[in-house]
Write a structure and sequence with these properties.
Strand order of the largest sheet: 1-2
Mean pLDDT: 86
Low-confidence stretches: 1-11, 448-453
Shape: globular
Largest sheet: 2 strands, antiparallel
Number of strands: 4
Structural class: mainly alpha
């Protein structure tokens, strides 16, 4: 009886965080969220070719890999996703619906692996917050059935995160004894190399890995990791030259386009250092002060964040002061969360934040601000949310009342996303039904409306 009384007293003294974590800590919660994501992905399924450019280029590249092999190699940007589409083309032919169904599979698998990377390594509440965001966010769901490279990249990134976190933050961490840990180092080296083939800008992610080892004073691990990456990169370049030869030489590489002031007009000349810093500050405003809030549903998706004004006889874009202020809020919350993570030795949060932050830095520095597409920051939103929510999680943990406020805030964000994604999915059902029945143009904006605009 005394023992029972002691147990009751212990439970009653548990904080709101503890009670909610205990409630969430079961497989049922995981499967409910995953099932919700699958259902939302299916009702949001887009069976049409988008009006964009890159996704169509990927399909065309996949076709050329099959029908012009080995005289064709995709050089516009990272080649791995077009290779994957080439494999699907070889098996199924150029079938848009099949391509998009595989995007859904990639999206679901990537979400599961991201969850596995965080499992038992970050607070339970935050793990499920990030996992739920991935599964129900409307933009995540939008790209889950497109032939953009984002679902493929998310899977490659999540795979790397899963193995990196498993090897470094478990009871049996990877060491520098090559005989003992050779297989694990080879797995990491291969995945690091695949990251750079999935997105060119991920070379900044490789730098983030080296920085992470450096600040942990794990210099031997840093050397071994970079050596393993270099080995696979070297082998890939050998194989690429052997199979594709001259067709793999990037005569007009993505880098040459990025160096131009205008990506579509080389006659305007190349960017100088001041121009790159201008891109960096503009992109911080556009992506952190606008796109992050649009992704979370706090800002109108049609809001441009800048307007063109006349200066010295030219029309130039000028940023809205509002997005500069809003970007500072995101930066503050992210760095505050990183500070708390460093203080509390939350290594997974530190690593994911460092990785995402370094890649975002590279993206903001090299991309022309005119591109301004949400997908460039969307793939890093889980890490940004993890860091910023961890800071708030720690800030509000002082009392049960504060904890209720924080949990209510997370619930509000997720509920808003769920309602938005579900309503979009319901509206999409009659569209995708007609598309799958053969009306491939149903759902596009009528040409008359475009002309009237």
């Amino acid at each position: 009886m005394a023992k029972a009384q002691k147990t009751v007293t212990k439970k009653s003294n548990a904080s709101i965080y503890d009670k909610l974590s205990a409630y969430l800590n079961n497989k049922r919660t995981f499967y409910i969220i995953l099932f919700s994501g699958i259902v939302l992905a299916l009702i949001s399924f887009n069976a049409r070719v988008t009006e964009a450019n890159d996704d169509s280029l990927y399909i065309e590249a996949g076709y050329k890999y099959v029908h012009e092999f080995p005289n064709y190699y995709y050089t516009a940007n990272a080649p791995m996703y077009p290779m994957f589409l080439g494999l699907l083309t070889l098996i199924f032919g150029t079938n848009l619906v099949v391509f998009k169904l595989f995007s859904v599979i990639l999206f679901i698998t990537g979400a599961i692996l991201y969850y596995k990377a965080l499992d038992k390594k970050v607070p339970e509440i935050l793990k499920y917050f990030v996992f739920t965001f991935i599964c129900i966010n409307h933009l995540m769901l939008y790209f889950s059935s497109q032939t953009f490279s984002e679902p493929f990249y998310m899977l490659v990134q999540a795979s790397f995160f899963y193995f990196f976190c498993k090897y470094h933050f478990s009871d049996d961490p990877i060491g520098t004894d090559i005989k003992k840990d050779l297989k694990r180092w080879l797995v990491l080296g291969l995945l690091m190399m695949l990251l750079t083939l999935a997105k060119n800008v991920l070379i900044f992610g490789i730098a983030a890995i080296a920085v992470f080892y450096f600040f942990r004073k794990e210099y031997k691990k840093m050397v071994v990791a970079m050596a393993s990456f270099g080995l696979f990169k070297f082998l890939y370049e050998l194989i690429k030259g052997w199979i594709w030869g001259d067709s793999a030489i990037q005569y007009k590489s993505q880098m040459s386009i990025l160096l131009n002031k205008d990506p579509y007009d080389a006659t305007q000349g190349q960017e100088d250092l001041a121009g790159f810093f201008g891109r960096f500050t503009d992109n911080i405003g556009l992506y952190l002060g606008k796109r992050v809030y649009q992704i979370l549903g706090f800002m109108d998706e049609k809001y441009a964040g800048r307007e063109f004004v006349e200066k010295n006889g030219e029309m130039v874009p000028e940023m809205d002061n509002k997005i500069i202020f809003l970007s500072l809020i995101v930066l503050f919350l992210t760095f505050f969360g990183l500070y708390k993570a460093i203080k509390n030795k939350q290594m997974v949060i530190i690593f994911l934040t460092l990785f995402a932050g370094t890649v975002c830095f590279g993206t903001f520095f090299v991309l022309q601000a005119r591109w301004d597409q949400p997908r460039f920051v969307l793939v890093h939103m889980p890490a940004i949310l993890l860091a910023s929510s961890y800071g708030l999680y720690e800030f509000f943990k002082k009392s049960n009342f504060n904890q209720r406020i924080f949990i209510a805030f997370l619930a509000f964000i997720l509920s808003s996303m769920l309602i938005s994604s579900f309503s979009r999915g319901i509206k999409n059902i009659p569209i995708v039904t007609k598309n799958l029945k053969g009306d491939i143009y149903y759902g596009y904006t009528p040409i008359g409306k475009i002309i009237r605009r």
